[in-house]
Amino acid sequence: MSTDHAFRPSDSLRNVRYEIRGRLARRAHELERLGYEIISLNIGNPRLFGFRTPETMRLAMIENMSDSEGYCHQKGIFPAREAVVMQQQARGVSGVSAEEVFIGNGVSELIDLVLRALLNEGDEVLVPSPDYPLWTAAVNLNGGRAVHYPCHPHNRFVPDPEEVARLISRRTRAIVIINPNNPTGATYPRPVLEALARLAERERLVVFSDEIYDQMVYDGAESIPMATLVHDTLCTTLSGLSKIYRACGYRVGWAVFSGRLRDAGDYLSALELLSSLRLCSNVPAQWAVQTALGGHQSVRELVSPGGRLYESRRVLLEAVARSRFLQLQTPTGAMYGFLGVSPERLPNFDDQRFALDLLEQKHVLVAPGVSFNVPYRNHFRVTTLPDADTLRAVFARMEELLCAYESGAAGERSAASSAASTVVEAQARFK
After folding, report:
1. Using CA atoms, how far apart are residues 294 and 248, in angstroms rounded to an integer?
2. Nearest to residue 176, comparing CAs of 146, 152, 156?
3. Residue 331 CB: number of other CB atoms within 10 A?
4. How crowded is the C-beta side of 406, counted as CA atoms within 13 Å?
5. Which residues pair with 336 in a beta bridge?
6. In this structure, are residues 20 and 380 in contact, taking their beta carbons and an 8 Å threshold?
7. Residue 10: CB atoms within 10 Å
8. DSSP H helical ranges for 149-282
9. 381 and 183 in contact (C-beta within 8 Å)?
10. Inter-residue long-range contacts of 388-395, CB under 8 Å, 24+ positions, other chains counted
């Protein structure tokens, strides 16, 4: 077949990856269609593991459905934006009104919009490594260049502000901070956040603070709102209903602007223009925001001893402590573990090969570490959303595979798995 008239994708996608829903996830779906039961630990989707959105939020949507049939203001309905303002004020953020709040179809849409409104071709954005890969992808899609600042495993995945400072160039426009962090579960100490705030102010960088897991912390860890520390530059706080309120499918997120607002008029006008072009975000689910933020915060029980998320995290820590191969910096926030494999035990370990073998042989889907823009190949991410018994079974399967690697017994099966995956992908291309 001639490729002269092939429909080619845009060159803008050349450096864009989102492997969390990539090749491995497609193979998992294929295996499910063949009748296998796959335990999917690659995505933080609470509903998949039986978590429910609070009933009061569903009722708020139902009761306001008659007011949800038309477009709303491009920034979102006023009660939702005002509820976000009240939450920010309660956390010590001053100078914010509903005019500085934008509601989006999840934080994912807002990440794209806030970057599109800011970046020119070749502008640089400091992004953590490991990162939530949408940040890197969105920078690239909007003509920018993601410059990754390392959050080293040996430093508990906490960034070094001096190391970050050395990466700044004349093209640097912004810094992304993900706290609590996805994928590592790290919560950043106040001195580190203060140092990053001073650095951003000194260099006039926009701060994009991704705080979607802000109340999901464990054992006394503190999630510090970046907007309480940033005053002399623009700070953008991003959060939403997906994780804390177990409402991923509602697709409701918000971006709140604070700090040096007097210099941000043109930028905020550009963001409003982009918000207008998509008309508005999902109206029915916006009615759940006021109820969610002003009501009982049930996530606190989930992350306390005896709570579902706390106990699943306990299983993760116990499994690593028993393992001959696994290593982990204890996650103090979010709902993930970013696991390492001992290079002394398995010097040739490859995260992508392991993820494929684990899927094909043990029917468990995880996200390889390289999905999160790291230079090393001995990490992978799991979500701690499953119940304790499911996680125990998962780690038993992992240990079996790692033992097989050590003995060399997994090599032949790995080659067979790779061949089977290649055949399935080839068949899919011709369907």
Report:
1. 19
2. 146
3. 27
4. 15
5. 383
6. no
7. 8
8. 161-165, 190-203, 265-277
9. yes
10. 388/311, 388/312, 388/314, 388/315, 390/39, 390/49, 391/312, 391/315, 391/316, 391/319, 392/315, 392/319, 393/39, 394/39, 394/41, 394/364, 395/315, 395/316, 395/319, 395/323
Q: Measured between alpha carbons, how far is 264 from 327 in angstroms, rounded to an integer?
A: 44
The string of pLDDT tens digits covering residues 86-117 is: 999 999 998 999 999 999 999 999 999 999 99
In 3D space, the residue among 339, 344, 343 whose CA is nearest the CA of residue 355 turns out to be 339
Give the pLDDT of the chain (431 residues) as one tens digit per residue: 555 678 888 887 777 777 777 789 899 999 999 999 999 999 899 999 999 999 999 999 999 999 999 999 999 999 999 999 999 999 999 899 999 999 999 999 999 999 999 999 999 999 999 999 999 999 999 999 999 999 999 999 999 999 999 999 999 999 999 999 999 999 999 999 999 999 999 999 999 999 999 999 999 999 999 999 999 999 999 999 999 999 999 999 999 999 999 999 999 999 999 999 999 999 999 999 999 999 999 999 999 999 999 999 999 999 999 999 999 999 999 999 999 999 999 999 999 999 999 999 999 999 999 999 999 999 999 999 999 999 999 999 999 999 999 998 665 455 445 544 443 443 333 33
Domains and CATH numbers, the chain: 15-44+304-429 (3.90.1150.10), 56-294 (3.40.640.10)
Full-prediction pTM beyond 0.70? Answer: yes
Residue with tokens 């919560």: 187
DSSP-H helix ranges across 34-169: 55-63, 78-90, 106-116, 133-141, 161-165
Residue written as token pair 């077949």? 1
DSSP letter assigned to residue 98: G
DSSP 304: S
Question: DSSP state, 277?
Answer: H
Within its chain, how far is the Cα of 340 from the centroid? 19
Please give the Cα distance from 367 to 146 (Å, whole number): 21
**Which of 224, 207, 320, 297 is CA-nearest to residue 258?**
207
Residue with tokens 């959303």: 385
